[in-house]
Amino acid sequence: MTTADVAPTGLARGLGWFSVALGIGELVAPKKLAQLIGIEEDGATSFVMRLLGAREITAGLGVLAAPQRPGTLWARVAGDIIDLGLLGLAAGTKRTSAPRLAAAVAAVGGVMALDIIAARRADKVRDAANQPVIFSVTINKPPREVYDFFRKLDRLPLFMDWLESVTETSGTRSTWVAKLPVGTVSWDATITEDTPGEAIAWEALDSLVETEGRVTFTRTPGRDMTEVRVEMKLGFSGMGPSAKLAKYFAKPQIKGDLRRLKQVIETGEVLMSDASQHTKPHPAQPSEEHDKAPKLFIANETTAVKGVTP
Amino acid sequence: MRATTWQGKKHVEVVQVPEPQILNARDAIIKITATTICGSDLHLYNGFMPSMQKGDILGHEFMGEVVELGKGVKNLKVGDRVVVPFAIACGNCESCEMGNFSCCENSNPTGWMPEKMMGHATCGAFGYSHLTGGFAGGQAEYVRVPFADFGPIKVPKNLTDEQVLFLSDIFPTGYMGAEFCEITPKKVIAVWGAGPVGQFAIASAKMLGAERIIAIDRFPYRLKMAAEKAGATDVINYEEQDVQEVLRDLTAGRGPDACIDAVGLEAHGHGLQYAHDVVKQKAKIQMDRPMAVREAIMACRSAGIVSILGVYAGFVDKFPLGALMNRGLTIKTGQCHVHRYMKPLLERIEKGEIDPSFVVSHHMNLDDAAKGYDMFMHKQDEVMKIILRS
Predict the structure, then answer these.
(1) Lowest-pLDDT range of A125-134, B45-54, B326-335
(2) Which of A80, A97, B19, B327 has the most CB atoms lying inside 10 A of its own CB?
(3) Helix (H, G, I), strand (E, B) or coil at A37
(4) Can you name the residues that pair with B389 across neighbouring β-strands?
C-alpha cells in the first residue's frame, strides 16, 4: 500500500478515539451524561447509557485496530442511527429538556456526517487497492515454454481439476465443460488478447457465470523462470464481472490450480499422496480405491523435466 | 500388509492395511527391509505435532528393495537395494536446483497447510502428519516412494543395513548440523542432546576436525556413548551440573564457538521457565518447549553460530532475541537437505571413516512397534536406536 492510500485514516483514528472516550464517559458517569443531553435520569436510563458505552468502546477499538477498513466505520454509522432513534424516543417523553436534547441530536448528526465521510473514504481506498490479481506462482521454466503449455487450452483440465474438458473450436473460441456441485455446466469463451510468451486474456460473457480473466507470464529478474499471475473477474448473469467476487469465490480454487500447474510443468504431473488422492479427509495410508488420479505424465515430451543431480 | 499406525496420543498400533500402489509415474514401491523409530516420531507419538489423523502410517527412516516401478523411473530396477531420504524432493524446482531439497516446492500436496502456519509451504515427508503431505510412512512392510528417480540411492552389498540405514535421516541431519558450525580444528562445539541425532552431530563434528566437542544430556548411558563412540571430549549431565557454568569454565569464559540443538520441542529442564513451558504446551497455547535452544543461545560465544536440528512446530515465548541480536549470533537451521548428503556420506562409510551402526541398541519385530515407541519414549533399557524388521 502506498502512503497516499494510508493517509486518509487520520479522521477514522480521531473518530475511534472519540468513540472510546465517549464510551468511557457513558460507562463511568451515565447520570451526568444524561443530564448533559437533557434527559432526566432514572435506573433504566443509566442501564441503557452503560450499554451504549460498551458499544462505543467496542466500535472505537475496532476502528483504531484497523482504521483503513470500511466495515467498522459503517458499524459506527449504524450506531449513530440507533442513537438518533433513542434520542427521538426520549423526546416523546415528558421528563426531558428540549433545548439540550436538540443540541444532542445536532451533535450526533454531526458525528454521523464525519463517520460517513470516513467510511466512504475507506471504501474508496479499498476499491483502489482491489487489484484484480488473484494469485501468482513462479515456475522454473522460461516464459515462452510456460505460455506454450498454457496456450494449448485442452491441457487446462490437467491442473484445473474442476474442469472436465476445454475444446478449441476456432482460433479464439473454445468450449469449456466443468463439473460443479450443481451439475455439469458448459460455456463458450473467447480469447481477447494473445501475446505469445507474455499474456493470454479471455472472456465468457454469454453464460450464467460471467468471467473475464488474464494470465501474464513475466521473466523473473536474473533467472530464466516465469512469474505467472492470474487476474480474474467474476459475476452472475447481468450484473457485470467484479474482481471482489472473483477473489471471494474463485481464489481458493485458483491457488490450487496454480500450484498444480507448477507441478505439472516442473515435474511432469500432479503429485498425489495417500491423503490427497481422496476428496474427503483420509489417513496417510494406502487404499484400494481413490477418487482422484493424475492425468498425464509429460516427462518425455517437449517440456522435458530437467533433472538436478544431488 | 502390516503397518504401524497412529491411533491417538501415545497410542500406536500395527494393523493390516492395503498395500501401496503406484500413483504417479515417478513412483516406486519398496519392500522395507529395515526401518527405525526416530526421535522426531516421538513428537507425533506424544501428540505435539498438529494435523495427525487416526490411521496415519508412521516412519520416515527406512530402506528396502525395489519391487515395482512407475514408467517414469529409469535409473532404478526391480531388486535394487536402496536407502530412501525422509524428505521428498522433485529435483526440478528452483529450491532443488539450489540444493535446498527439504524446501522442495512440488512435493507437498497439502502445502496450503504449512503455508498458513509457517508463511510458505514445506516439502513433503513420509509418515509425518498431514502438514507434510499426508504420505504413508515406512514402518510397514511396503511403502510407496514418490520421485523415486531422484531420491533413493543404491547401496553396495558389502555394507550392512545397520551401516547404511541412517543415511535416510539421522546421519545426514547430524552431519548438516556440524557442517553449519564451519568447523576448524580450533573450534569448540557444544551439542545439546545425546540422542541418535546428537551422536551423529558429535561424530560428524569430529570427522570434520573439531578438537573439542562437549555433549549435554541427562542420561549417563547416552553421555557415555557420546564420549566413547561418537567422540565427545567432555560431557555435561544437566541433572547434576549447571550447563552455563560448566561451559563457561570449559572455555575460560568465551563460550562454545558453535552450539548445536539436537533436542527440539520436547526439551527437559529445570526451574520456573521450564514449568512455564510445560504449562503452556499442555494448555495448547505454545506448541514447543524451547529450553535447549534458549540455553544454546545464552551459552554461545559472541558472533558464534547456533545450529538448530531439533524439530520445532510453532511459536515460542521467552526467546532470547536480545542475546541473539546484541551478541551477533548466527542461527542456521532447517529440515535436513538429505539428498545433498547421502552420496558423500555413503562414500565416507565405504572408506571406513565412520560406522553409523554404533547407535543401534535394539532390534525388534515390526509387530512390536508399540512396545518400541513406549520404550524409546521412556528411555528404558538404555535405548538408543531401535531397528524394526517385519
Answers:
(1) A125-134
(2) A80
(3) coil
(4) B365
